[in-house]
Amino acid sequence: MISGCYRGLVNRFCERCGDGLVTRARWPNGLLGLVICFLLSIFPTQAQGGACLRIGAMAEKHSENVTRSTDGNDNKPPAAFYEVLHKALKKRKTKLENICPPSDIVARRVLEDYGAMFLANKKVMPPPVCIFTSDAQVTEFQERAGYTTELIGFDEVELQPEAMKELLKAREEAQKEDLDITPRDGAEAARRSYEDSLQLWDTRFRPALDYWVGQGRLTEAEVASLISLPLHNQIAEVLKLEKSGIYFSKDLSKSILYSIAAPGTSQHIAMLAFDVNEFDNPRVREILGKHGWFQTVLSDLPHFTFLGLKEKDLPKHGLKRAEVDGQTFWIPNVIPDDNPVNGQPR
Ligand SMILES: [Zn+2]
Fold first, then answer.
1. Interval between CA 207 and ligand 1 midpoint (Å)
2. How far apart are CA 124 and CA 137, in angstroms?
């Protein structure tokens, strides 16, 4: 790390004090670095090292900010997800350790993939844990948070009241423009039970096992062992296999978490998610955004999350913009140094 910084520093500030410096570090730190490096050139080499290290760190940070600044609408870099999350949880009188224990790698992975909902406005209630482990626990939460039922299109769907209110407003607005916002795949588009999330997991997990056995990447014995694992360990093993390219999404090309939530973890369980049939219409996405609904799970195109926030404010709530297939996702801005489990395998 130190030698990497030093090497980067030498590259940026001592050996390339010309155009490269200004281009990469930008104003004003770049110019400052240029001037200081010029002055340093009259001092002994050792002194340059220490001073350059400090300037390097400064400009590297600035350079990173310039890159990240494109993430926000107001040209400010997005805030760090964990920083905002700590504050948000404190306001809700809880803390990260309570909802996602640091030792639980699966929970952290889930948090960083689906965690936008924890930053939702105070009119809704995010789940008290990253992973629910029983039907009873989910039922208790859903009753406490409350939900309303509405017929949208041909299906009855259920969401937390504020999320539903804004969804209906968005739908009304869409319909005025001869568009519509309807649930994808029936009632499962909104609230789901713990049991639903288990069943959906199996619709990806089981066929993928068959496929990878057919490909010779897994043996029958490995499959039997995976199936027999307690659920939490099974999820952990699946995520581990995916690191070696054995994917479990529906099309077997990406992580299962971009295809279906791990059991007990879905934003649908939190009743803050809605899968939209018309997701590929940019105007529909815009109208949903206006009402606090955003795409927050990378690559899950029809899936919208209710945050109840304005799009321009998302960066300061620890979310960064990511463009995939021409669509805008707002995902947790996890900065490695801010991640409490930095260094642990993910
Ligand atoms: Zn969904």
1. 20
2. 18
Taking only the tens place, the pLDDT of each residue in 80-92 is 999 999 999 999 9
- Percent helix, strand, coil in the chain, to 5, is 55, 10, 40
Q: Which helix (DSSP H) or strand (DSSP E) does residue 151 occupy?
A: strand 148-152
Instruction: Tell me: do 173 and 315 sit in the same domain.
Output: yes
Q: How many distinct structural domains can be found in the chain?
A: 3
DSSP letter, residue 13: I
In a domain, 121, yes or no: yes
Give per-residue pLDDT as tens, 120-178.
999 999 999 999 999 999 999 999 999 999 999 999 999 999 999 999 999 999 999 99
Distance 146 CA to ligand 1 centre (A): 19
Look at residues 23, 44, 70 and tell me which one is the last residue of a structural domain: 70
- How many Å lie between the centroid of ligand 1 and the Cα of residue 304? 7
Q: Give the domain-ending residue among 214, 231, 258.
A: 258
- Position 62: which residue type? H
Confidence at 300, pLDDT banded by 50, 70, 90: confident
Residues 290 and 187 in one domain: yes
Tell me the CA distances in angstroms from 36 to 13, 32, 101, 229, 322, one per residue in order: 9, 6, 45, 60, 36
CA of 158 to the centre of ligand 1 (A): 13
Which secondary-structure segment (H or E) carries 336? none
